[in-house]
Amino acid sequence: MPYLTSSATGSASTDVRLRFGVPGFAHPLVARAEWGELTRPGTPLHWVVLNVADGPGVRPDPHCLEAAGRLRNTGVRVLGHLDIAHGVRAFAEVVSDAQRYLDWYQVDGFLLDRCPGERASLPDIRRAVTTLRTLRDGAHVVLGHGIHPYPGYAENADQLVTFSGPWSDYRWSQVAEWTADYPPDRFCHFVHGVPRAHLDEALRVARWQGAATIYFTDRTDRDGLSDPWENMPGYWDDIVSRIGTGVSE
Prior knowledge:
Number of strands: 8
Structural class: alpha/beta
Strand order of the largest sheet: 1-2-3-4-5-6-7-8
Strand content: 15-25%
Helix content: 25-40%
Number of helices: 7
Shape: globular
Radius of gyration: 17 Å
Distance between the termini: 14 Å
Largest sheet: 8 strands, parallel, barrel
């Protein structure tokens, strides 16, 4: 069973209120129903990632602009998707993508996908985050490591994605002890391939590990051949009702 221990807290807490961080649906022309569903009143959304074409694209897309505008009009943060490519992508390219997101879609912040997690890369990521916050005052920055990174990253972003992967790994995962020194709203978990019958168990894992922002889906990556986040899970209404009522274990 996943565990969390800390000299600061002594034990894990399951009294964590969860909200969704949506990693990014397919283009609104392809996933029209999904984007529309996100604007339903009462949906516990923290933020939604806009990924036009593996980034902002080469020109403004009116369909994406409309989808992002509807979300922002309901008070939901929209984050631009920036691919860091594990730290090898040129700094200037990342900044250029960020500026286009701001100019074209007025995003509220950014998800830095494929973010490196080792200590040696921390200065470069710190530089990128600092620059993004000069471009957009109050930008909400999420570092998409997908694993537990070197602890210093937690001081340089609003949130860290500390798990991204399949349910078969998540249900037996173990959380890094240092995360207990931070509140749950600093951490995000993205889990695909979660069967409906295991939703309660998955929600318990998230709360036990201290992650307040989640996205669970029954879609799979088909061994790396597809994007499990492109479409809404088949049990969307079910998981919305469970989170929206604040069910805890």
